[in-house]
Amino acid sequence: MKVHALFRLLAFSGMRKGEALALQWNNLNFKDGEIRINKALARGEDNQLYIKATKTKGSIRTI
């Protein structure tokens, strides 16, 4: 069921997979129905996961 929720989030918001996986609770605003995207999850050396800036560097998108 978690995969279904992730798929719907990606399909209806247009956000990238790495951006969705980097979301934290403080990025969600339930009162106004908004999601703020300001970081993404990526793989570095030795397949280590790390948080990086979004592809459009420095840009914070609100959906």
From TrEMBL:
Coiled-coil region(s): none
Alphabetical UniProt keywords: DNA recombination
GO biological process: DNA integration; DNA recombination
InterPro entries, A to Z: DNA_brk_join_enz, Integrase-like_cat_sf, Integrase_catalytic
Gene Ontology MF terms in the entry: DNA binding
Residues covered by the Tyr recombinase domain: 1-63
Protein biosynthesis keyword on record: no
Protein name: Tyr recombinase domain-containing protein
